[in-house]
């Protein structure tokens, strides 16, 4: 479907199809995380007056690269490539940028397991990026939620990364975003998460894998 100012955005059927196909290639908990981010983004967007269809699509597909076996920085680059190939340019942008809180590549916590060419591309992209409300929402939720709501501090602790001034600044920015968002919402962010239902997508996929 076409959205003015955002271009082609996959509808829910297409999003599910893309997640299904990716899960077949690389089954894992990543699909639960992606589903939760998508559904939570959709609910929050509706309350904020944003487009819930855009929020759902970019939320569900931000980690698409993980469904093709890629991890760390490589999963963002791969997700970007897959979505651009499908002509979903805005979701591709979110897939590429969701791991970077600031305009510096060093704001990413994982391994830089990409080629020098890809790294240079990401650096150039971040320099000109302007984070909009959808991207900010996905970045924030990605740092609050894993397979369930954790919160910024617990999510950061699980990464087991040494505290540095840069990491502290990153966390400060995210806390500011959270405060700003929750000031606009009727309830705390964690209340917008969907209930897990083992018999429904995508929980049934993991159950069938066991």
From TrEMBL:
It comes from the Bacteria. Residues 31-138 form the HD domain. InterPro entries: HD/PDEase_dom, HD_domain, HDIG_dom. Pfam families: HD. This is HDIG domain protein.
